Amino acid sequence: MLALITGASSGLGREMAIYLSELGYDLILVARRKERLQELQKRLSTHVTIFTYDLQKSENIYELHKKVQDKEIDLLINNAGFGLFGMFFETSLDRELEMIDLNIKAYHIMTKLFLPSMMKRNQGRILNVASAAGFLAGPRLNTYYATKNYVTKLSIALYEELRRVKSQVKVSVLCPGPVATEFNKVAQGTFQVEEENARKVARYAIDKTLKNKLIIVPDIFTKIGLFCNRFLPWKLSARIVYHIQKRK
C-alpha cells in the first residue's frame, strides 16, 4: 500500500503520515521544508520517499507527477494549504493569489493527474483536506473560505461522477473546524475557540476515508453548526461568521 501526502511536514499532513505508516503504508511525502520531512522520515517504520516542492508553482506539480507516475498510489491526500485573516480590501493580493494557487490549483492539478491511473486500475482513494469553511461564506477570512468551498464542492461532484460510471475509486473530503496546527501563525490570526487535536483529527479522517465516507466532519459541535446553517439566510449566516472571525 502506498500513500502520497502533500503538506506533510507539519500539522494534519504529518499526523496522517505517522498514522498511515503505523497501518503499514509506504509513503511519498511532499512539502517545502526538507529538514522537517527528513526528521519525519527517520521516525517512520515503513518506506518513505520525500520530495521538496513548492506546490504553489504548477510546474512543480507536473514534475512531481512525472517522477512518481510509475507508482501505484493507493491513497492521494491533498493537504497543503494556508489561510489569511483580514478584510478583503486590506489583505495582500499577491498573498491571496498564492493561496488560490496552493489551496485550489494544486488540489485540482494533483487530482487531475493522479485520478486517471486510479481509474484505469479501478481502485484507489483521494482525500481532499478542506474545512467546515467549505460550506460557508467567511468574512474576514474570505479568500480561504472561498478556496475551501471550491475543494468541497469539487470533491462532492467528483464522487458522484465516479459513482455514475461505477468506478471503485473513492473520494473523501475532510471538513473540520479549527485544528491546532501552524494555520494561525501563517494566517496571522488566533482562534478564540478551542481547537481540535491534530493527531485525533488526522486519525479520524484516515479511518473514515478507508471506510469510503464522503464528507468527514470530526467534531460533533461542528456537525451541529453546519446542519443549523442550512436553514439560515445567506446574509444572516455571513453576519454570524463575521462576528466569529472578528474575535480572532
Give a brief outline of the structure.
The protein is an alpha/beta fold and 248 residues long. The chain is built from nine helices and seven strands, in the order E-H-E-H-E-H-E-H-E-H-E-H-H-E-H-H.
Structure description:
Helix 3 (58-68) packs parallel to helix 4 and helix 4 (93-121) runs parallel beside helix 5 (142-164). This protein has helices spanning 11-22, 34-43, 58-68, 93-121, 142-164, 183-187, 198-210, 220-229, 234-246; strands at 2-6, 26-31, 48-52, 75-78, 125-129, 170-174, 215-216. With 248 residues, it is an alpha/beta fold. It is globular.
DSSP helix count?
9
**Major beta sheet, specifics?**
7 strands, parallel
CA gyration radius, whole angstroms:
17 Å
Shape: globular
- Mean of pLDDT: 92
Strand order of the largest sheet: 3-2-1-4-5-6-7
From the N-terminal CA to the C-terminal CA, the straight-line distance is 41 Å
Low-confidence stretches: none
Question: How many β-strands, per DSSP?
Answer: 7
- Helix residue percentage: 40-55%
Oligomer: single chain
Structure characteristics:
7 strands; 9 helices; alpha/beta; single chain
Topology:
Layout: E1 2-6, H1 11-22, E2 26-31, H2 34-43, E3 48-52, H3 58-68, E4 75-78, H4 93-121, E5 125-129, H5 142-164, E6 170-174, H6 183-187, H7 198-210, E7 215-216, H8 220-229, H9 234-246
Parallel strand pairs: 1-2, 1-4, 2-3, 4-5, 5-6, 6-7
Helix pairs in contact: 1-7, 3-4, 4-5
